[in-house]
Amino acid sequence: MNETEEANETARLETFSDGVFAIAITLLVLEIHVPDAAEIAEHGGLAQALIDLYPSYLAYVTSFVTILIMWINHHLIFRAISRIDHFLFMFNGLLLLGITFVPFPTTVLAGHLDGDDSDVAAAFFAGTFALIALCFNLLWRYAAIGNRLLRRDINPAFVTAINFRYAFGIPIYSFAALIAFVSPEVSFGICVLLAILYFVPTRLQPVTLP
Amino acid sequence: MNETEEANETARLETFSDGVFAIAITLLVLEIHVPDAAEIAEHGGLAQALIDLYPSYLAYVTSFVTILIMWINHHLIFRAISRIDHFLFMFNGLLLLGITFVPFPTTVLAGHLDGDDSDVAAAFFAGTFALIALCFNLLWRYAAIGNRLLRRDINPAFVTAINFRYAFGIPIYSFAALIAFVSPEVSFGICVLLAILYFVPTRLQPVTLP
Amino acid sequence: MNETEEANETARLETFSDGVFAIAITLLVLEIHVPDAAEIAEHGGLAQALIDLYPSYLAYVTSFVTILIMWINHHLIFRAISRIDHFLFMFNGLLLLGITFVPFPTTVLAGHLDGDDSDVAAAFFAGTFALIALCFNLLWRYAAIGNRLLRRDINPAFVTAINFRYAFGIPIYSFAALIAFVSPEVSFGICVLLAILYFVPTRLQPVTLP
Amino acid sequence: MNETEEANETARLETFSDGVFAIAITLLVLEIHVPDAAEIAEHGGLAQALIDLYPSYLAYVTSFVTILIMWINHHLIFRAISRIDHFLFMFNGLLLLGITFVPFPTTVLAGHLDGDDSDVAAAFFAGTFALIALCFNLLWRYAAIGNRLLRRDINPAFVTAINFRYAFGIPIYSFAALIAFVSPEVSFGICVLLAILYFVPTRLQPVTLP
């Protein structure tokens, strides 16, 4: 392949990934359970039933924001990648597998955040994000080691900054998964904080302008 | 980033947003409950059961048209925006969070429009749109104040016109949410009217042609 | 707007519409009901339960193929349209409203094709397509009358051919909806035939090459 | 149509197909059944209930990876195709029909992989992929025979390689469907192996660079 074709292939993989992110983020709402007549009666009216769904809203917003921030990060590293190969394709696929899975632990968390099994639900939620962080690391490090698939004019400080940022994801999400058995609230709080942390932009650009 | 890259980033955010709008609008149909055998018997046949679903159709069409018109408005302001930054990204993300949430209040409204809790359901429906109007205002005003992220050749009359149009959304949708407790029908009617109002095109263009 | 901007706007509306078509066509599978343990026992095993879902498969394939062919036709008329205005936008929106609704009558038909209410289900199915045919006609005729929104170099024979093709949709689908009360099978057969008919390509191109 | 228009039409069909692939792959997660209170009690807690969902995870990952690899292969053959006609359109539509159907046999497999009907479920799963392999063959061979729709500068060795690869799909998936009645595990294993096999890249490019 020549350079134009390589750029096209990379753009196409990114467009496909964007589509998967957009769909996964939009599907989250289907996981909010609409209360039926019996449940409304049990809660003493629709208003109370809707209010008592707060764990669903909390889980929904957290997953939405986390996927959105992961999308920004995915895009950021793809601005540094200039070509793809079969292994990068596989690591990107693994990452998408993790992203599309998010609605499931979100529903589980929403259903158990205020119940007996909140520890297991929070651990499952944080554990899913630990696995996604692993996929992000595989994708990035595979592309970045020895500048294998990065742009030739890549800013080395940018690579260092991303390396640094990505070093945190796996251990902290794993810690959040373990701490869930002590305090589900702390576990969930760490997930929220980590999403916000990853939203903080790096001031470095993939390419330094002359 | 240079100007080409800025334009690319803006286009990419808009494409992603378009995808979310398209998916949210298409998911609405999943919220129309297919009547089962017991329900059909209760309604005295499939024909009557389908007719008695009219609140679902009404809610479906209203939400569909409202999201569609919001998409037009989203596109209109993005024709005026020439670059994005991290905060615009966040406000756009909040807006998409609101848009993807719409199927849920739509289902709630569809299930209660002709029942006892119609006041709560209509208030929840209008309240959701009040929040979306708030997100639209945040997005637009953040970009427009001091021409922060607008095109350099932006038509000032266009900015004034959009400012004027957006000033109505939050108070009127909020009023609709409150009036629901007096008359759910009036509340729902205001939501329909407001969507139509926002469909009325502004004759002004973001850029005046020489 | 200048011509480049007009072409961009038209392309963007078409991309959005394409997205809605792609999502609507993919959602159809969610309407195939997965048999649970009780239903499997009732049918005497999974194999028989899967075979007895044949009305679902039939409805699924018919809706899939019909939406796909409508997508081709949508694209064909957009190859003739060079600019959009607010009313075209509205008619296109109405058409998408019809397209996204298709999974619902498809599920109803799948659940009743071999039951007592097959007449109502078949009429509802054909009636939906009659309404979609109406939207297609509104969209096309609004753009075509007096060459309002068509390309300046449009081939008049192409316009005549599309006019001719579209004249059939509403009456035949309406007839299919009525005949359902006499024979649901004939009604469904007409829907299948009409889809195939609309798949037959017109040999005319929107623009004649010099 | 001239060559630019032909290229546009081909790109548009591919973009539409990409969208369908992206949606189908993301919908898979909806098929993982969220355990309700009664099921959790039966399994003795949420943790065990989530672990006992392993057939769902297995089916989910297998379908995800298989669709992803099919997407790569779809893209590979579209890099060789330079124009489309009505029949190619139809064969591509049939292929998409198969792809969008995958969530259904996946759910059936997930629900029966460890039960009495595992033979039927595995046969249904493998049989679906046999049909998809048939659609892939129709699409490719229709385009490739006599270089009907391929690029003029196509690399003949590439055509031979794809012909060779595609010759395996139908017989092996069909064999997997039959062997399911002897051993569902072997059948499922063949499906997994075949996906991996199709992931192995061909070193040949559609066009040889000068």
What would you say about this model in short?
4 copies of one chain form a homotetramer. Chain A is mainly α. The first copy, chain A, is built from 9 helices and no strands.
Report on the architecture of this protein:
The structure is a homotetramer of 210-residue chains. Chain A has 210 residues and is mostly helical. Helix content of chain A is 75%, strand content 0%. Chain A contains nine helices and no strands. The first copy, chain A, has helices spanning 3-27, 37-43, 46-51, 54-80, 86-101, 103-112, 118-144, 156-179, 184-199. In chain A, helix 1 packs antiparallel against helix 4, helix 1 (3-27) runs parallel beside helix 5 (86-101) and helix 4 packs antiparallel against helix 6. The longest helix of chain A has 27 residues, at 54-80. Chains A and B meet through helix 1, helix 3 and helix 4 of A and helix 1, helix 5, helix 6 and helix 7 of B.
